[in-house]
Amino acid sequence: MRENEHKIMIEFGETDGAGIVYFPNYLKWFDNATHQFFRSMNLPLSQLKEKNIILPLIDVRCTFEKPLHEDQWIVVKTTVGKMSTKTIQFIHEIFLNGERVSYGYELRGWVLKGENGIAAQPIPEEIRELMTCDDVVNKKEVLSR
């Protein structure tokens, strides 16, 4: 299964008065990690947007195991969880010095934005293959189609 890692430095503005990371920042990091995941497939979400494909958030969950603080480097590891015909679950785990400190998921829809609004669409097979293959040779074969 494909995975991607995204390294982030925690900034002062991401902490609360107690110096602990304010919880909405985890969701921001999840979102950024999903964007990085698509970039790792040479398919930035901006490229999908040009084709009127958007990936709206349907559900999100985050579990906090240990607090994080300013000036710490974290790694957000992202993998694909469940995929239905029209939705993708991205599993995110946040690590500090190799120790998992938080985990969760985003559930996103594969949606076409048209003149009459938005409508969920089946995820194309080549996209499914890109999201699930971890072999460089297979990735090149899928991208060349």
From TrEMBL:
It comes from the Bacteria. Transmembrane segments: none annotated. This is Acyl-CoA thioesterase. Keywords: Hydrolase. Belongs to the 4-hydroxybenzoyl-CoA thioesterase family. InterPro entries: 4-hydroxybenzoyl-CoA_TE, HotDog_dom_sf, YbgC/YbaW. Pfam families: 4HBT_2 (PF13279).
